[in-house]
Amino acid sequence: PADTVSATYDLRVRVYSERDAANIETVLDEQTAEEAIVVANPDVSVVNVTTTPPDGEVESFETTAVATAVLENTGAEQTDIIIDHRILDPDGSLVVSDTAEIEVRSGAQRRASLRWEPSRDQDLVQGGYDYKVTLRSAAEEELHTRTIEDAFSVTIAAVGRIDYTVDLREATGGAVEQA
To answer: What is the pTM of this model?
Structure first.
């Protein structure tokens, strides 16, 4: 498991007679293997998050929002990481997500991004949108989670009713129709 300390462990196996199950002092055989189990948990974390636009303002449907997580592997070995990106609306509901597997070398940093192109189909509400990134090991164990509250701010312009009159005129200047 991810919470097991990274180290090398010895393994000892003892065999008991089933008839003697109550007496654990009667050992039929015992084998010990030194350094038989190596636990090397990935030590990868999110060290920085940036957003585009830089202020996080999403004011139109032409804006492409990007959240970029910078991962750093401070462990001794290269590792494969599953990164799960999510953007959540002000109520905590999922708006967009993406999952990818990336390889991070020991002592290295990698960037992983989520692009979000807001659309009218998403039924967006005005307010702050959180960005959540979760890192998992190849065995699907959660290693690290970071949430940036209000990473994006969505502003929806209100469109009200507009009353107007249009006069259509012929080239001679006389009124043709009024709507």
So the answer is: 0.66
